[in-house]
Design a protein that fits this description.
alpha+beta, 4 helices
Length: 196
Amino acid sequence: MTGPPPSTGNTVPGDRFSCTPAGVIATSRRRFSAFLMALALLMVMATLAMGLAGRLVPALLAAGVGIVVLMAWRMSRELSPQWLEISGVELTVQTASIRFEILLDGAFARPLEREEIAHLGRLASTAGLVTGVGGFDSHLLGEFDLYATDLDHAVLIESGEDRFVITPDNPGEFLAAAAQAGANTQSPLLQSTTHE
């Protein structure tokens, strides 16, 4: 009996593709996490100080803010993609909290160009932080849902009325597997049209 074939690159057997945080998204995630952890630590210290001073209401308020901060930290990672898997004619996107499928048979897929990646980075930026998850409407890319860990590996998928930008660690291998699943990776029809 033979085992599964050895993995190549960033894929594992079964056409599963890793999504490793890198680039501006990883940097933003580290900065945001550090900010939230510092804020949570400050709230713990405030809770202790108020508790030792016998000021129950301020201590409870500081503890409540600390809990909210910890929840925000956890929620900030909930929708970040962990891996992608192509099975049959479907692409499965797995995040920390949800899993959903995208039909690849008849879909269009292509890597984003440099100018589109730069535009996406600006579009997903707020207060110097770049988010990897969200719904966007852009004059360059149209309406799409973003599930990204590294914008340099961005791939646009158009399946029916839905458009997604995902970021497999190895876009070339991912697109080859998507083509085998029925996606068109060469079509000029996928070129983004300018939106008002």
